[in-house]
Specification:
The longest helix is centred in the C-terminal third of the chain and has 23 residues, at 160-182. The chain has helices at residues 3-15, 21-28, 30-40, 64-67, 69-87, 90-110, 133-154, 160-182; strands at residues 45-48, 58-62, 115-116, 124-125. Helices cover 65% and strands 7% of the residues. Helix 5 runs antiparallel to helix 6 (90-110).
């Protein structure tokens, strides 16, 4: 899931209007922001497996420190604590934690049974929505449109620059998503 994570961050703005969209986006993407670092350090592993389905080009061999339910909860608590210390915003910090946890929930819906519950556990789970490209695109698209609708109902740009920057950000996210659908395997 890519757009779905951003959708929840957009929707969260309505519940936490004082919280900037940047921290909300980072929280919703937290495991995916940490994952490349752990991958480059050799702590986690992935294998490229070319397929006709753009969502299954990567086989996640091992990613327990960024994507297990337990570690996502721990990373979320750490991120929420940092945010609380930085901004002194309890509601925003709670939302940071919830968004981090939502990442695992959305991944659970989309991933094959490769998501660990704990770092060194033997139980892996996932519902496998990614097995259907059409269903994945439909559900992510609807989530993204819904999140966008919540965001637009909750906030207004201060000026033309804010409006242009926001819609530019939305365009970049959609372009990245579409590029991932049509690009060859990495």
């Amino acid at each position: 899931m890519f757009l779905g994570h951003f959708a929840l961050a957009l929707a969260a703005k309505r519940a936490t209007p004082r919280t900037s969209l940047g921290p909300l986006f980072a929280a919703a993407q937290l495991p995916d922001l940490l994952w490349p670092i752990f991958l480059l350090a050799g702590i986690e592993r992935v294998r490229v497996t070319p397929s006709g389905n753009p969502f299954t080009h990567l086989s996640f061999v091992s990613y327990p420190w960024t994507h297990s339910l337990l570690m996502v909860a721990i990373w979320g608590i750490v991120a929420a604590a940092i945010y609380l210390l930085w901004r002194h915003d309890t509601r925003g910090a709670a939302m940071i934690l919830l968004l981090a946890l939502s990442h695992w929930g959305l991944d659970w819906v989309t991933h094959r049974p490769d998501l660990p519950l704990v770092p060194e556990g033997g139980l892996y789970t996932g519902l496998g929505l990614w097995n259907s490209t059409g269903a994945t695109v439909l559900i992510e698209g609807l989530l993204f449109l819904g999140g966008l609708q919540f965001y637009l109902a909750a906030t207004r740009p201060r000026d033309t620059t804010g409006r242009t920057a926001f819609w530019g950000l939305i365009a970049v996210l959609v372009i990245i998503y579409v590029a991932g659908l049509v690009a060859p395997p990495p």
